[in-house]
Amino acid sequence: MKFKNTLVLGALTSTLLFGNSLEQKVAELESKIEALTEQSAFGAGESKLSFNGYAKVDYVNYLDRRGEDFSDDYRLILAPKYKFSDTVSFISEIEFEHAGSTVEVEQSYIEWKVQDNLSLNIGKQIVPMGYVNLYHEPTVFNGVNRPETEKNIVPSTWYENAILVKGNYDKLKFQAGILPSLDATEGSSVRDWRGKGNKAKAEDIAVVARVDYTFTPEFQAGFSYFMGDIGQNAVGLEDAKISMLNIYATYQIEDLKVKAFYAQNDIDGITGLSETKPDGYYIDASYKIDDFVPFVRYEEYQVETKADSRTLTTLGLNYFINPNVVLKADYIFYEKSDGEDDDRFSMGVGMMF
Known about the structure:
Layout: H1 2-39, E1 49-62, E2 70-83, E3 88-97, E4 102-115, E5 118-126, H2 148-153, E6 159-169, E7 172-180, E8 205-216, E9 219-229, E10 241-253, E11 256-268, E12 279-287, E13 292-302, E14 309-322, E15 325-336, E16 344-352
Antiparallel strand pairs: 1-2, 1-16, 2-3, 3-4, 4-5, 5-6, 6-7, 7-8, 8-9, 9-10, 10-11, 11-12, 12-13, 13-14, 14-15, 15-16
């Protein structure tokens, strides 16, 4: 009898011990699963990896037949970001243009927060020039396409390998740094001279600086400046250099928003271009009515000489079916210095996620 009792007691003890061990293992497993979920890029908890992007699709109808009508899956941007720590992050943007026929890495840099309001960025990033050049998501700017002044004079979108210091002190924001300069051996316009970080020539190093200031909640203004030699040690371009100045301001009172922008490039040391100062400006006014934003934009610019100047008046409407999704339509009265018109009607959809 004593032997049987011992067996029963041993069995019960083993069962209890095994049960406690099993419960403990289940609890540990649940804890590990929760930890993995929090670390997952798609989990509900804090994530080191985040992911966003934007896209736009356009249709353009040339009314004066200076070009062929087209529809275009213009841009799809995928922007993965990884947070190594509270002070060090990796930021990138991969751009698919024209239905994927062109693929480029727009941004790929390390952001190091030296202080809460000061960071050092190293790698391929947006050059801090222009206005739409920095804020170019389709839900941010008016119209199906960006202002041509910024596209051809700034030139947007402009990205390059660079070392930039960024600061944000109350009402003042600034950026400053160095980068490979433009390359005047590639084409005849500033837009052609962008290296885009693709084995960009770095015989000449340029400097860039930008200052933005919020005077009141309604009024912000700023300027950006770029300067550097652009010959890249090419024969005949030893004295080639450029200075670029952008000035911009925005004013918003209730639902009315007005934006003004001016850009000028001063080119020296290049035969045929040394006496030209490509410049341009635009004024953009919009008014928000619920989810509708009608706007008008007037711009003038010249790429090389006054004989190549353009004047554009754009009337358009943005309709936000969601804060991050917009339907767009506009009509551009497009006048060229040769006296011929190039009017066009455009429609598009843009989104951010």
